[in-house]
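Journal club side-thread
Mid-discussion, someone asked how the predicted structure for our own chain would compare to the paper's figures. Pasting it here so we can look after the session.
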Amino acid sequence: MTETQGRHGYHFQLRPFAPVRDSHGFCFGGSLHRLPGVLAIEYRLEGDLRSVVWPAPCAAISRRHDLWRQTCFEIFFGIPGESAYWEVNLGPGGCWNLYHFTDYRQGMHEDASVDRLTCHMARDGDTFSLACRINVKKIVPDCLGLEVGAAGVVFDTTGAVSYWAIDHLEAMPDFHIRKSFLIVLPGVAKK
């Protein structure tokens, strides 16, 4: 597991499922913070960004399905001891979605209890960053801890697709496997 807890949150490094044929010098990681009512995540993708197939920009930050079918950053989280979990897809074009599952890949539905995200995207040379604040107060009480998995899918101009996660625990890439939610965030006290 390549995640570390610091004073200001958890920092993680993602690795590809299998050696990438041409890695384009990618370094993919980020940080995660839990605040009262909020899950804050930042992703940083560094390397030859010209080799990434970027989704078209959204006119406004809005919901869209099937974001994982293109370059997409993802976060999965659930309450320890419960089989239900959530998946957040964050498209670097500005689109997003939140899904709830009742169990491993079961009972999937769009979760409307979160109606918008606060996101910021920036590109500076060979670094792309995406930071989002997800208001989770309607779906997870602050007092409960969370198990979290961070991941991403990168499509490149050669037609290759790479699957990135903190760790890959099965023979095929699968971000939904609960034991891959390797970051454990404690509950937070209200201020």
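Post-session note: The domain at 3-185 is CATH 2.60.40.1190 (Immunoglobulin-like).
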